[in-house]
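Practice problem 4.
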């Protein structure tokens, strides 16, 4: 449509004026960009919103995914050990790749530039966000040597085994194997160190717990749809609400009540500061809990030794 072409021309001018790109080169790239209406459809029905917790959990807590995680932990023991030195337990680093891309096996089939351009120009609810990500993608390609026309990713434009958006790739990816480049597509040391760096940058506290399962003598007022993505209460506050749970965290420690639709009724959890760091990766309380539970299952399955990344007992 003419409107889309106008927005594309405006984007090209801004990239030329603000970032020094050659307008003619960008014009040739955009002449080959394809709008993908199917991407709009996918954006409107993510699994985190379309499924209740017990169905969402069943997608990820499978024997196959847990076993592959344990196998990958053994194969990538050295990379995990190095990345975990940043303060994030190894099994959670690995679980992120397990949830996102089945440990790097499913990196996405959409051209990143098609996905980002479609969402920037054809999806008004989030056009500003995706226009910025499109800008970041071109800057990333120039700085890190990515090919803008062949890079593949998710329908939202996320890339590599950890599915970093372009802005996160630029801001948080690190060179874990010290080979002079940040490669989230092929280098496990880079992937795992980058996830750890992302968590630490978003205030992960080494040694602190993630969640604690709780019970309540009566049904609590909060519904699953009311889950917040920040610790708006304290340990003492959750206990005053009627949640019973065990933790070494002090009464004043930040915490938030989490409610999920389980197989046998409502599940109540106390989420601590590190839980809400996980939800910075994907803005969903169900994502945060499934990443935690997959990490726990991987740790239990592999029985990591002292010479490996971390023993299960070391990871709260």
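Answer key:
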């Amino acid at each position: 449509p003419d409107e889309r072409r106008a927005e594309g021309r405006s984007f090209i001018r801004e990239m030329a004026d603000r970032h020094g790109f050659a307008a003619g080169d960008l014009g040739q790239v955009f002449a080959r960009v394809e709008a993908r209406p199917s991407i709009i459809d996918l954006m409107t029905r993510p699994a985190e919103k379309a499924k209740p917790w017990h169905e969402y959990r069943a997608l990820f807590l499978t024997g196959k995914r847990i076993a592959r995680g344990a196998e990958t932990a053994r194969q990538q023991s050295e990379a995990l050990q190095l990345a975990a030195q940043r303060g994030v337990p190894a099994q959670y680093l690995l679980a992120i790749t397990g949830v996102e891309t089945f440990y790097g096996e499913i990196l996405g089939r959409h051209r990143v530039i098609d996905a980002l351009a479609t969402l920037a120009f054809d999806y008004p609810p989030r056009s500003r966000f995706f226009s910025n990500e499109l800008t970041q993608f071109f800057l990333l390609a120039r700085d890190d040597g990515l090919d803008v026309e062949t890079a593949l990713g998710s329908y939202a434009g996320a890339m590599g085994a950890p599915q970093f958006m372009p802005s996160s790739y630029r801001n948080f990816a690190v060179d874990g194997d010290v080979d002079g480049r940040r490669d989230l597509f092929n280098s496990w040391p880079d992937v795992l160190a980058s996830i750890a760096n992302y968590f630490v940058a978003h205030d992960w506290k080494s040694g602190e717990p993630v969640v604690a399962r709780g019970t309540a003598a009566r049904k609590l007022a909060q519904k699953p749809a009311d889950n917040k993505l920040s610790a708006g209460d304290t340990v003492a506050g959750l206990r005053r609400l009627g949640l019973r749970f065990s933790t070494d965290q002090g009464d004043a420690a930040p915490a938030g009540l989490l409610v999920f639709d389980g197989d046998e009724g409502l599940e109540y959890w106390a989420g601590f500061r590190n839980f809400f760091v996980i939800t910075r990766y994907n803005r969903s309380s169900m994502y945060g809990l499934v990443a935690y539970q997959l990490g726990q299952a991987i740790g239990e399955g592999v029985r990591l030794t002292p010479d490996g990344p971390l023993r299960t007992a070391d990871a709260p």
